Amino acid sequence: MEPLTDTATDQAPADPAAPDDMLATQPIGYWSGLANAAVTRHLRDAMATIDVTQPQYWVLNRVNGGSAAPSREEVVIQLTPLADGQYEIARVVDQLLHRGWLRIDAERRLHLTEAGEAGRVRVREMVTELRAVVHEGISDEEYVAALKVLRRMVANVEGDDGS
């Protein structure tokens, strides 16, 4: 495989203590994985204190967000790629139905109950506070730049044109 430019940056082994002038040599997989694990653990630990899981929050948001109430199958199809397994979202829907946070109408569409909306709002407030902790010292411009870089890397490896 030939480099895409005349100068290629060597890949160094992952080093959590790499100095700033060596960060360009660090593997993105290591650092993006580390960031994902740390942020996910932080969010899930905080949500556990109010007896809510991150997948439950995903389902609450999906049922709440949209012009038409989704079916169970639509929620499962949309959220399964984010989940830890192919059956997790279906289980979460069952948990939220049992908890009384979701209800199913005559057309088999899911809706939030008053308790479900109150729970969703409570978790959203918590997540907003947690986001502030995660983003401390990072401007919106830096955050957008980081996401654009990650989005471009995904496009590069998936063969998309990046637009």
Major β-sheet, in short? 2 strands, antiparallel
Query: Cα-atom Rg, whole angstroms?
Result: 20 Å
Low-confidence sequence ranges: none
Report the end-to-end length measured between terminal Cα atoms: 24 Å
Instruction: Write down the overall mean pLDDT.
Output: 91
Structure commentary:
The protein has 163 residues and is mainly alpha-helical. Helix content is 56%, strand content 4%. The chain contains 6 helices and 2 strands. It has a two-stranded antiparallel sheet. Helix 2 packs across helix 5. The relative contact order is 0.09. The mean pLDDT is 91.
Spell out the blueprint of helices and strands.
Layout lengths: L27 H21 L5 H11 L7 H8 L8 H12 L2 E3 L5 E3 L1 H21 L5 H19 L5
Antiparallel strand pairs: 1-2
Helix pairs in contact: 1-5, 2-5
Summarize the structure.
56% of the residues lie in helices and 4% in strands. The chain has 163 residues and is mainly alpha-helical. β1 and β2 (110-112) form a beta hairpin.
